[in-house]
Design brief:
A hairpin with a 2-residue loop joins strand 3 (133-138) and strand 4. The strands form 3 sheets. Strands 2-3-4-5-8-9-13 form a 7-stranded mixed β-sheet, with helices on both faces. With 336 residues, it is α/β, with parallel strands linked by helices. The chain contains 11 helices and 13 strands. Helix 2 packs antiparallel against helix 4, helix 4 (57-70) runs antiparallel to helix 5 and helix 8 packs parallel to helix 9. Mean pLDDT is 93; it is low at 1-6 and 15-24. Among the domains are: 32-101, Transcription Regulator spoIIAA, CATH 3.30.750.44; 116-193 and 230-269 and 304-334, Alpha-Beta Complex (2-enoyl-CoA Hydratase, Chain A, domain 1). The chain has helices spanning 5-17, 32-46, 50-53, 57-70, 74-86, 116-124, 155-164, 183-190, 246-254, 314-318, 323-334; strands at 94-96, 128-130, 133-138, 141-146, 170-174, 198-205, 218-222, 234-239, 260-264, 274-278, 284-288, 290-293, 308-309.
Length: 336
């Protein structure tokens, strides 16, 4: 099947890269120094976003290598390595061990702009759960809530919700708090929104050890799903800062679609496709290996900007209101 071939081939390539290892003349020693140096060196050669984040990786090494060498046990070594990786402020960079996984949450200091209890109590009513798509008609507008791109979508499920909303003026697709997953699920939705082959985004791959060693910018296209029904009317996609990784890619795709409005708050970013590497002690780490660009050339590591910004304050939550959803419904009904 030709549809989505170019995009899916790219993601498959990156998955294969996650298993790649640097060829060494002899097996590395399992010492604090060797584990630290391999992690630092691989990141230095393969991480794609140093320039964007204005990170002096040599200075980071000078701070954290002594801490790693002084570590008296695995926990202390882990803490030093994880702290070093978190200087990158990248949710796709983490260290995985049998006893812990390092993590960076870019959205913790950001306003929530979302509350599912408010949605469920005051807007959703007796909603349907079609696969992983929560759906309802709210004030004459179709509403779909998709909470994780890690959960698959079947064509039959999309067929159901599209048919349910066919006579309505449009649909609100709510991906707030969706932290990512499989981008193929987002592509399946997008393919129901387009009528012709469409450029969705561009990317560069870090392909060499030097700081400027990147592939040429490559464009990714998607063909429409001509075998199944598509969305009618106006489309509004709701986002907040928790939306990350495949969620941000979905938001980035919408920038190529004039009929789609992005509303709420900017996404959390995560444009670098993760690859990975094994350390001598058996631990594993991920790193961002690409740079992603929207169709207008924006590096969206810091987030995909919304077209219409709407906030949901603590006072709104206390009053049981979701002004982001209400604004989206108004837009779908009136076009402004």
């Amino acid at each position: 099947m030709k549809k989505r071939t170019q995009i899916l081939t790219f993601w498959t390539l990156l998955f294969c890269m996650s298993c790649e290892q640097i060829l060494l003349d002899s097996p590395p020693e399992n010492t604090n120094a060797e584990n630290f140096d391999i992690l630092w060196d691989v990141m230095n050669e393969r991480y794609s976003l140093f320039d964007y984040k204005h990170i002096d990786w040599d200075s980071v090494r000078n701070v954290y290598r002594p801490l790693a060498l002084q570590a008296k046990n695995d926990t202390e070594l882990y803490d030093a390595l994880a702290a070093m990786l978190n200087t990158l402020r990248d949710g796709h960079v983490n260290l995985r061990t049998p006893f812990d996984i390092s993590k960076y949450f870019p959205y913790l200091s950001e306003p929530a702009n979302y509350n599912f209890n408010v949605l469920e109590k005051n807007y959703l009513g007796e909603y349907r759960i079609t696969g992983y798509l929560l759906n309802q008609v709210i004030d004459g507008v179709g509403y779909i809530h998709y909470r994780s791109f890690a959960t698959p979508i079947l064509d039959s499920e999309l067929d159901f919700v599209i048919d349910r909303f066919r006579e309505l003026p449009g649909v609100v697709i709510d991906i707030r708090n969706n932290e990512g997953g499989d981008p193929a699920n987002g592509l399946k939705i997008i393919s129901r929104m387009i009528s012709e082959r469409t450029k969705l985004y561009s990317y560069q791959l870090k392909n060499g050890p030097g700081p400027d060693d990147f592939s040429e910018v490559k464009d990714s296209f998607l063909d429409p799903d001509t075998e199944n029904p598509g969305f009618n009317g106006r489309i509004v996609v709701l986002t907040n800062r928790v939306v990350y990784s495949a969620g941000s890619y979905f938001a980035a795709y919408t920038k190529a679609l004039p009929k789609v409005i992005l509303m709420g708050d900017d996404t959390g970013g995560g444009c670098g496709v993760p690859a990975g590497y094994d350390l001598p002690n058996g631990w594993y780490f991920n790193y961002s290996s690409t740079i992603g660009y929207t169709v207008d050339g924006l590096n969206f590591e810091g987030g995909v900007p919304v077209d219409i910004r709407v906030e949901m304050t603590p006072e709104d939550i206390a009053a049981g209101r979701d002004p982001i959803l209400e604004r989206a419904i108004t837009y779908v009904k009136n076009g402004n």
